[in-house]
Write a structure and sequence with these properties.
Elements lengths: L53 H11 L12 E10 L17 E10 L14 E9 L2 E8 L12 H8 L15 H9 L4 H7 L14 E2 L4 E4 L5 E10 L8 H10 L3 H12 L4 E9 L1 H6 L19 E11 L3 H6 L12 E2 L4 H18 L80 H9 L2 H16 L4 H14 L1 H11 L37 E6 L5 H13 L3 E6 L5 E2 L5 E2 L3 E2 L10 E5 L2 H8 L2 H12 L4 E3 L4 H6 L10 E3 L5 H6 L9 H4 L4
Parallel strand pairs: 11-12, 11-16, 12-15, 16-17, 17-18
Antiparallel strand pairs: 1-2, 1-9, 2-3, 3-4, 5-7, 6-7, 6-10, 7-8, 8-9, 13-14
Helix pairs in contact: 2-3, 3-12, 4-10, 11-13, 12-13
The structure holds CIS-heme D hydroxychlorin gamma-spirolactone 17R, 18S.
CIS-heme D hydroxychlorin gamma-spirolactone 17R, 18S (HDE) binds next to strand 2, strand 3, strand 4 and helix 9.
């Protein structure tokens, strides 16, 4: 008898019986009811253990095999389910059904860091992966992108070297989840093609406030193909509805200690609360004529096309609205493959993309243990699958019936499945000529122009962060010649930046590196490249941390909470004891955090509501002083009541109060009205050495 492929383990009536207390009866994997899950079967007391205990053996065997290899890159990740809705019709350029206006397509999205292992902290300075699996009616489309629109290298053959250099050094096994070490900067400085991406990773893009506040990019140039077979080049962009936001570097360092799960917790909580994060999907569309006139090769993944040159057309919105039921089943087992494209979407000749199309399929085999990973529910298409591929490890759905080859005259009346020249995926019939050689295209030779364009497009605080980041990273590099070599490249990007970094390292300015092609130095700045310039002026989805003591003014707290909530933000109470505080009117407010477990790095802005006695008490508490001093140093907006002054004094902030600091006794509107600016960056040069 044919097996029902959908048979569920616990479907059988016998094992659905409950225990005397009404719990489901525990069974083995074979469905045999378990009598004792506390003790091994033994002979006598205390007695040797007996091999007869199949429940023990199966339990331990399964536990011993719980781990699978972590991803060789992007090991630390977090995913959620959602839906993509097309808001514009793209049928003028693609036959892909998911781009018909109003069409809703389920998705699974996984965000990740790149270099760190599975247990590394969320806010490491690193690129973030932004991978989306669209379960379309014509199969799965995986858009496996990053939160940075360019990549380090131009040819896939250098990927193992890049990753080896970025990961912990092989002899010592550290540092974890960091590029601040010799090997990374050695490789980068010997590979000038990395310089554009280096500018991006030294910017605030690599220390995002959360996944909800990041852009995403498909990076490569892809193709859209219409029903007649006409091709249009496309670059994909994800734009967060909440706008972009990043944290300060010193804050990131502390966040990783305070909450190594900061990003995943943020995403999980937002979805649990029903505050679903959304991104618009945009496309930059262009043809061969544009590609020919563009000063760089559109097939070179180290280059972007400024939005000012080709505007981003918004074509749909992704909403992440369901957390996973089980992290391993979905987030860990999801297998993205860049080769997964659907009719209407195609590849370009970008040599990085071509290399990826081999690597992703290959890596899943190792990670998930066999070719049937496509049958794991998170990877299964949501449309019918008819194939004669069969067997292998963990075969869960084999073809039914007698026929397992094509062509055949068995099986269904028509003897199918058969290929379908009308509906089937057709590759774009690009004409290709040329000698077979190992080479790098001459058109890829410019390594500095867009690096410079990125730098000059940043606001002053962002430029400062980049100089600080480079100085910090190179200060961890032990070999002076590597530091110098990096600065020699910076000289080709921006002289002021190079000099700042050299000064920060006390390094003699080297000769500029010899460029393969002279850089174009007058590319117009692009505001779209700056997080600060693109600020949306909203506090929506952000968090105010309110440090409170007994006797704090109840009306001020109520006004603050209501104003922040109306602005779409959240308020968390930080208290000396998690049991809460008693307000001036005798009401109790629960603490969301105890002050030493809820440092100000967890919040976008802070307020201190203290009674006179409360202020005196907090003044002597080191975590409370750090709460204030850090918030101030991280350029956060800060509000306080009069009672908090002793704490502000002791934290060294009272003498330095500025326009980013608000006295609350006169009302909360001034403070809450400013929160959408997110940070008071003007303060920053006054609070650090590098200012
Ligand atoms: Fe990946 N990359 N990559 N990558 N990548 C992987 O596949 C690879 C590249 C990206 O959440 C691996 O399933 C090569 C660019 C994301 O599961 C592996 C090259 C971009 C994820 C792999 C690149 C990415 C990966 C490891 C150069 C942005 C995580 C585990 C040719 C456009 C997906 C896996 C997830 C994962 C190879 C370059 C993004 C080994 C060879 C460029 C978001 O196959």
């Amino acid at each position: 008898m044919a097996q029902d492929p959908d048979l569920k383990l616990d479907d059988s009536g016998a094992n659905r019986q409950t225990t005397r207390d009404g719990y489901e009866t525990m069974t083995t994997q074979q469905g045999i009811p378990v009598a004792d899950d506390q003790n091994h079967l033994k002979a006598g007391a205390p007695g040797p253990m007996l091999m007869d205990d199949f429940h023990f053996r199966e339990k331990m065997f399964h536990f011993d095999h719980e781990r699978i290899p972590e991803r060789v890159v992007h090991a630390r990740g977090y995913g959620a389910r959602g839906v993509f809705e097309a808001t514009d019709d793209l049928s003028d350029v693609t036959s892909a059904g998911l781009f018909q206006k109003g069409k809703k397509t389920p998705v699974f999205t996984r965000f990740s860091t790149v270099a760190g292992n599975k247990g590394s902290p969320d806010v490491a300075r690193d690129v973030r992966g932004f991978a989306v699996k669209f379960y379309t009616d014509e199969g799965n489309w995986d858009l496996v992108g990053n939160n940075i629109p360019v990549f380090f290298i131009q040819d896939a053959i250098k990927f193992p070297d890049l990753i080896h250099a970025a990961k912990p050094e092989p002899d010592r096994g550290f540092p974890q989840a960091q590029t601040a070490h010799d090997n990374f900067w050695d490789f980068a400085s010997l590979s000038p093609e990395t310089m554009h991406m280096i500018m991006w990773i030294m910017s605030d893009r690599t220390i995002p406030r959360g996944f909800r506040f990041m852009e995403g990019f498909g990076v490569h140039t892809f193709r859209l193909i219409d029903a007649e077979g006409k091709s249009t080049y496309v670059k994909f962009h994800w734009k967060p509805k909440l706008g972009m936001q990043s944290v300060a570097w010193n804050e990131a360092v502390k966040l990783n200690g305070a909450d190594p799960d900061f990003h995943r917790r943020d995403l999980w909580n937002a979805i649990e609360k029903g505050d679903y994060p959304q991104w618009d999907l945009g496309v930059q569309l262009f043809d061969q004529d544009f590609a020919d006139s563009f000063p760089f090769d559109v097939l070179d993944a180290t280059k972007l096309i400024p939005e000012e040159d080709v505007p981003v057309r918004i074509v749909g919105t992704m909403t992440l609205n369901e957390n996973v039921d089980n992290f391993f089943a979905e987030t860990e087992q999801v297998a993205f493959c860049t080769q997964n494209v659907v009719p209407g979407i195609g590849f370009s000749d970008d040599p990085l993309l071509q290399g990826r199309n081999f690597s992703y399929l290959d890596t899943q085999l190792k990670r998930l243990g066999g070719p049937n990973f496509t049958r794991i529910p998170v990877n299964q298409p949501r449309c019918p699958v008819h194939t004669f591929q069969q067997d292998g490890h963990m075969a869960m759905k084999n073809p039914m019936g007698r026929a397992n080859y094509e062509p055949n005259s068995w099986g269904t009346e028509a003897g199918g499945p058969r290929e379908d020249p009308d509906r089937g995926y057709k590759h774009y019939p690009e004409e290709v000529r040329g000698p077979k050689t190992f080479h790098r295209s001459e058109t890829f030779a410019d390594h500095y122009s867009q690096a410079r364009q990125f730098y000059v497009s940043q606001s002053a605080p962002e430029q400062k962060h980049m100089a600080d980041a480079l100085t910090f990273e190179l200060s961890k590099v032990e070999h002076g010649k590597i530091r110098s070599r990096v600065v020699s490249h910076l000289l080709n990007i921006d002289e002021t930046l190079a000099k700042k970094v050299a000064k920060g390292l006390r390094l003699e300015l080297p000769e500029p590196a010899r460029p393969a092609r002279a850089p174009i130095t007058d590319l117009a700045p692009s505001d779209a490249l700056s997080i600060v310039k693109m600020n949306k002026g909203t506090f929506k989805g952000r968090k105010l941390g309110v440090l409170m003591t007994d006797g704090a003014d109840a009306d001020t707290f109520a006004a603050l909470k209501s104003a922040v909530t109306s602005a779409g933000g959240m308020v968390e109470v930080v208290a000396p004891m998690v049991g809460g505080v008693e307000l001036s009117d005798g009401s109790m407010v629960e603490g969301d955090q105890k002050v030493d477990g809820g440092p100000s790095v967890l919040y976008d802005a802070v307020a201190i509501l203290a009674s006179a006695e409360g202020g005196q008490m907090l003044m002597n508490d080191a975590p409370s002083r750090d709460f204030v001093a850090d918030a101030f140093a991280h350029a956060k907006f800060l509000a306080y009541t009069d009672g908090a002054m002793p704490l502000l004094k002791k934290a060294g902030v009272a003498e330095a109060l500025d326009e980013g600091c608000f006295e609350l006794d006169g009302g909360v509107d001034g403070f809450v009205g400013t929160l959408g600016k997110l940070r008071h960056w003007d303060r920053e040069p006054k609070v650090d050495l590098d200012g």
